[in-house]
Structures are given as structure tokens and as C-alpha cells.
Amino acid sequence: MSQTLQAVRGMNDILPEEAETWEQFEESIRDWLKAYGYRPIRMPLVEPTPLFKRAIGEVTDIVEKEMYSFEDALNGEHLTLRPEGTASCVRAAIQHKLLHAGPQRLYYYGPMYRHERPQKGRYRQFHQIGVEALGHAGPDIDAELILMCARLWDDLGLEDVRLELNSLGSSDERAAHRQALIAYLEAHRDQLDEDAQRRLYSNPLRILDTKNPDLQALVEAAPKLIDFLGDESLAHFEAVQQVLRDAGQPFRVNPRLVRGLDYYNRTVFEWVTDSLGAQGTICAGGRYDGLIEQLGGKPAPAAGFAMGVERILALWRDAGGVAEAAVPDAYVVHQGEAAGRLAFRVAETLRGHGFAVLMHCGGGSFKSQMKKADASGAPVALVIGEDEAAAAEVSFKPMRGGDQRRIGLDELASELAEQLFAADGDDGGV
Ligand code: ATP
Ligand code: MG
């Protein structure tokens, strides 16, 4: 026998029981996004590699070591499986001139690809919900983005999720801070690890984002960007905080929050939890006023965030958010050729009325079919034998008590509706 094939490492199958939870989550997500006026956009999973190099930055974890890039075997084009959605979303908005119609509130949802070391909460194919507000300049939209996340955590019943906030200022302010930072790091050069040595001149800000425990003290004492912010940046940052305070949303200003992508400026934020171990960031975002111009569009401000669906679902599961398994309204049991044909008609007719009907397939005795009907959880079995087929009727059998009775096809839908309503009433359901 040939060896069985496995999924690619770090890329997961989502089996039915779990996928039902995903679908339920996706339903609440849609309502939530609609409540804030965000509209869906869907971009390809594959983009030209230069898009990500330009948008995310050459000296970043993603571009340096995490991208699935390849050459199109037919035309040699350099392509990449998208590692994130902001670059694609902005590319699409520019390409289709969406901003000509004014600012846009957009969202996307789907798989992203990063070649990382797989572990709990960190996969090579994972899913993000991305929300982008394009063409909006004010601190109001930054605050709205943050508060809409808070509402989602609340809707999902997630607890222990904290908000961390920082401002990266403008590019001039970052340049002044960068100079001071390089001087400081040069003075402590012997303590830097390999990554930090390499990034000292190319991207020193990212050294502050290091996960190396040996560098924490050094990084803690480094010059802080916030001390280099000018009046406008400070006013913007203060305005965001004011809305959060008015809304009663707690937050912590974390001067070390710099984000792993180059395109951010001014407000950046992360939602973190201690309940997921090392992979504690469930959502991250901020303002990226330069990106649209950088990707060839007419200059326009923007802000957004992306959340990691696997991490949020792990938290949601812990909070009891698991979908109930889908149960059919009726299970159709049948035996004999004429009965089989009637069974198809019955099942299709009921589905036409909006019922979920599981039709027994594959034959077998009435007894074994009834066992399957019971196992399906359906509250009603519709039994069709030769007698029923000849009379164009169905034996209507409630599975949890109640009399079995013969019913004509005309009354079947109303009888089933009544039975389901009564069954729900019994156990206090809706
Ligand atoms: P991390 O520091 O955990 O690597 P990041 O800064 O690379 O995160 P972003 O690019 O900001 O992450 O992506 C936004 C969110 O997507 C993260 O906060 C996280 O919830 C999720 N995410 C990122 N990478 C992965 C991954 N490999 N597997 C699962 N979720 C991920
Ligand atoms: Mg990462």
C-alpha cells in the first residue's frame, strides 16, 4: 500500500465539528461588521511579490523569512501567497479607484500564509479578519476601530483581553528618535544579538520589538519614541485616548509597541490576552497614512487592524462558545422501489418549505434505518413502506414520545412545523 499523504505542516484541516463553530463565529462577525458600516472585499490569495516587499518593508520578519514566494513556472513572474491582507486591500482600492467615491470602510476574511515554526496559536496557514478604513484621517476613526474590537470581545463573551496602545508619530519624528536610538544601541553593541546587530542601521525600531529575553532590559531603557512626538502627533494620540476614556475602555500606553510591519505611523494598538500562552496577541493594527501613496495611489490616510481567527476561536471555545451540532428536522426512512421514489419527493417537498431533511441512503432494514434516524437526533422520522407508497402517504413518527400517525403529503409540512414547535416548547427552546 502506498504511504498516506498528510496535510502540509502548519496547515490545518478544520473538521466538521470545529467547522460548525467557525461558521457560527463567521455569522456573528458579519453582523458586527455591518453594524459599523464595513463592506466586504475579496482579494486573490496570490499577489506579485514586490507588493509585499514595498508595503511591509524589506527588513521585517515577514519579508525576510516568512513568505511563501515562488516563480510562476509558465512566465517567470514572482508571486507570493499573501502573508497579510492590508497590502492587497490597498492595492485593490488603488487599482479600482475605490477612493474616488470617497473614504471606504472595508473588511476581508480569509487564509494568510507565513512560513513560521508551527506551535499552538501559530500556523503556516491561518485566518485573519482584516478591517481597513481608507481615506480617513482623524483620531475618530482610530478610536472607532478600537472600540469595535471591544464590542466584538463583548459579543463573544471573551474576558481577560487587554488593550495596549502607542503612537509611532510621523516619519520626521521617527527619524529623530531613530538617530537617538542608534546612538544608544551603538553604545551597547556588545549586548546585541545577531538579529539586532543586523537591524541596527536598517531597522533599529524593530529591535524594540525583539522577543529575545536577554535584550529586554536593554530595550526597556532605550530612548522612547513618544518623547520625540511633536504637537500634532501628540494631539492626535490624546484625542484617541479621550474617546477611549469617554467610552470607559481601559488601555495601557506601551512605548515598546512598534508593530512588526513598516507601514504604520501614529496610532498603533494590540489586543492581548494571557490565556493563550506565548501567542497572546489576538488583534493588532493602527494607522498607515503613507501606504496608499507608497503603493502608487493618490496620497490618502488610512487605518485598520487584523485579528487572528484561530487565536480568537481558541479563546471563544474556552468561554463556552461552541456551536451546537446541526440536527435535521426529519429523517426519511423507506423500503421498496415505489417507497424510495416517494421518499425523494417527500424530502424535496419539505426542503422546499425550508426544513432540513436527512434522507436515508444505502438501503437496509427498517430496524437499522430507524437506528440511524435516532442517532441523527431528528425529532421526527418519516417512514415510507409499500403501504404508504401505494396510498401516497407517510407514517409520521415523533422520536421523543407521541403517537405515530399516517399523513397525506398535503398536510406533511404543516404537521412537521407543528411537531417541531411543540418539541421546542417542551424543552423551553425558542
Ligand atoms: P506575532 O507577533 O504573534 O508573530 P504579528 O505581529 O506577526 O504577530 P500581525 O501581522 O499583526 O501579527 O497579524 C495580526 C494577527 O494575526 C496577530 O495578532 C495574530 O492574532 C494573527 N497571526 C499572525 N501570525 C499568525 C500565525 N502564524 N498563526 C496564527 N495567527 C497569526
Ligand atoms: Mg509574526
Describe the overall structure.
- The mean pLDDT is 93.
- This protein folds into 2 domains: 16-169 and 229-318, BirA Bifunctional Protein, domain 2; 330-422, 3-Layer(aba) Sandwich (Rossmann fold), CATH 3.40.50.
- 41% of the residues lie in helices and 20% in strands.
- The chain is α+β, with helices and mostly antiparallel strands and 430 residues long.
- The longest helix is centred in the first third of the chain and has 20 residues, at 16-35.
- An 8-stranded mixed beta sheet has the order 1-5-6-11-10-9-7-8, with helices on both faces.
- Bound molecules: adenosine-5'-triphosphate and magnesium ion (MG).
Gap from first CA to last CA: 52 Å
In spatial order, strands of the major sheet run 1-5-6-11-10-9-7-8
Give the class from helix and strand content and strand pairing.
Answer: alpha+beta
Low-confidence stretches: none
How many individual domains?
A: 2
Q: Count of helices?
A: 16
Question: Roughly how many Å is the radius of gyration?
Answer: 28 Å
Q: CATH topology of the largest domain, what is it called?
A: BirA Bifunctional Protein, domain 2
What profile does the largest beta sheet have? 8 strands, mixed
Strand content: 15-25%
What is the approximate shape?
A: elongated
Which characteristics define this entry?
binds magnesium ion, BirA Bifunctional Protein, domain 2, 430 residues, binds adenosine-5'-triphosphate, 8-stranded mixed β-sheet, Rossmann fold, 2 domains
